[in-house]
């Protein structure tokens, strides 16, 4: 069973940024888990939740365009990006954080480790309780 960083009986009033690579229209287990994580955040908080989806196709959330083919993914991986991120997507996310820093940043994939490391350095006031 997954451990959550919040108590189920507590309601949080924070400004939350939720970033996922699994919120596409595809029927997948990853999408189901990401949507469940997002619904849990909504259920236990009165927070303003900004949702960003890293992906190849547009959806109902704010879209951050991911790598678009295998070659682009390979080049991004050589630059130590993963999870569909590349330099442009990475910069878009960092700029969104800088424009309106969230109280809590929820990265819905461990593939966003490089992003998590940089956010911790550049934005130390963001709550580190968030699940990564």
Can you put this structure into words, describing what you see?
There is one protein chain. The chain has helices at residues 29-44, 70-78, 87-99, 113-122; strands at 15-20, 48-55, 62-65, 104-107. Strand 1, helix 1 and strand 2 (48-55) form a beta-alpha-beta unit. With 132 residues, the protein is α/β, with parallel strands linked by helices. It has one domain.
> Count the helices. How many?
4
* Main sheet record: 4 strands, parallel
Q: Report low-confidence residues grouped into runs of 5 or more.
A: 1-10
Task: Tell me what portion of residues adopts beta-strand conformation.
Answer: 15-25%
Number of strands: 4
Percent helix, as a range, is 25-40%
How many domains would you count in the coordinates? 1
Mean pLDDT across residues: 79
Q: List the secondary-structure elements in sequence, H or E.
A: EHEEHHEH
Rg value: 14 Å
Please write out the topology.
Layout: E1 15-20, H1 29-44, E2 48-55, E3 62-65, H2 70-78, H3 87-99, E4 104-107, H4 113-122
Parallel strand pairs: 1-2, 1-4, 2-3
